[in-house]
Write a structure and sequence with these properties.
The complex is a heterodimer of chains A (306) and B (298). With 306 residues, chain A is an all-alpha fold. Chain A contains 14 helices and no strands. In chain A, helix 6 crosses helix 9, helix 8 packs across helix 11 and helix 9 crosses helix 11. The two termini of chain A are 13 Å apart. Chain B is mainly α and 298 residues long. The chains are: A mainly alpha (306), B mainly alpha (298).
Amino acid sequence: MLRYALRRLAWLVPMLFGVSIAIFLILHFIPGDPARMAAGPDASEEDVQQIRANYGLDRPLYVQYAIYARKVLHGDLGDSFATLAPVSEGIARTLPATLELTTAALLLAVCLGVPIGIFAALHPRSAADSALTSLAVLGISMPGFFLGLLLMLLFAGTLGWLPPTGRGTWRQLILPAVTLGLPYVASFARLVRASMLDVLSEDYIRTARAKGLPVRRVVYKHALANAAIPTVTTFGMDFGRLLGGAVIVETVFAWPGMGRYLIEAIMARDFYVVQGTILVFAALVIVVNLAADVVNGFLDPRIQYS
Amino acid sequence: MASSIPASSIPDGAARARPGFAAYLLREGRWLASIAALALVLFALAAVVAPWLYSWETATRVQLGSALLAPSPAHWLGTDELGRDLVARVVWGARITLVVAVSSVAIALVAGVALGAVCGFYPGRASSLGMGLVDFMLAFPRTLFAIMLVTVAGNSILSLVLAIGISTIPVYARLFYAPVMAMRRREFVLASRAIGASDTRLLLAHILPNLLSLLIVQSTLSLAEAILIGSGLSFLGLGPPPPTPEWGVMIAGSRAHIVAHPHVILAPGCALFLVILSFNLVGDALRDYVDPRSRGRP
């Protein structure tokens, strides 16, 4: 088990390198390059040249990348043009808020989605089952910012139960977390339902039932463990989508997370902040996907040998 | 299109003569999907006739004297915080939304199908590498990828289209890779090859027409997703700048007034939600129509 986990985690290194090169290249296609961005539209040509030299932007691209990669490995993501503070500080300040929001949303999706999915699998073609299908379509059709504003209108405006924006108390977490997590409740439930239905028709389930095990035990011990595998895989893949959604939800609820940090940096044309936050977002996605692989290796030992 | 497919190339289980999609919807009693299809027709109609209904001027000119009016016979959906008629803006928004969605999906479709089909048709080290890249892009958050592209290209409708289009390419590449690879070894393809058909002809005339139904279903669902992502980017300020009557831009601009005047958010928001929902419902129904075994599957 440990060897498998280490082997999977060894993949982190080439993947992080690959994604950092990709992000670096894409962002360096910016017309007028970061120096012009930093200097602003009114700067003279000499000023731009000066900034370019200061940041090493006049060197060949691969040299720039080598310097950048070296700095990143030392935890240095560059400095913000706007505040002159290190980008790593900005990320350290905003990342916990983003993790808090996404974790809360995922907990909501899992705690509601998994039981609903199990129920629907045990009662196929029931009213609850078809309601689930409709809810899943509604979930993928609802833009996050519109759902967020509607919830804000109802619970913060009309009813006045919850604060509309900000972060600090647990009551301020509810609306953003529900906005982000709600669409995933139905998609999670559908996933659990489909995996459960697949597993429930297997021979070993029939054997377990035939030897007299109670339904409850068969479902929760035998079926659920195996149905969890595709669910965990998809969870890893959905995590990226969830982070993308978090950027929008943070903007709606003025949640001081990394997504808002990124959007503000784009508006201010703050190049190193944009590059740094996107790199950290990508690293998060990679780590969560590899973690999902490792968890699956643990759930199904056969995966370790394939 | 169906009539142009040689009878020998129809895959197993596919019916040769089928009722049209509209007839299918009515016969199967899929009233929700029927309403959705009707809504999409209205949406497309609004998008096309927008300039004849309301001038661009009506949709964008600031008239502070009539700001934030509630819905009334003069302004069916009321007016926004800058006094612009919301019906005019929502109708123009339909036009922008349709243009962005259709052109971005067209880009993704052409590039993605080409990539997936070529990788599937010529399996080897290069195509595994290409598909590995595609898988990686699929795991990367599409919103973030689009944000990067918009940062590079500046915010305009064109860069919005490019951002959504390019970030959707992997979806089509992944979708076409395996079926093309499987179909490469099917008898009808081998037979055409034996009588001397070129690779290009095999792909374009024999393999891809068989995957047309896959393409139609995916495109409908992609349109829904393109509108979802595009409106999200516009809401973040990465789409066309105000006063463009794009639905996401409208919602971002009016959100300060949501509690006192909810209609300014509800008009573009409901239009957005209903259009995305309709595309998803019609896409699901199309999938069942094309492959009846898929019904009820996620």
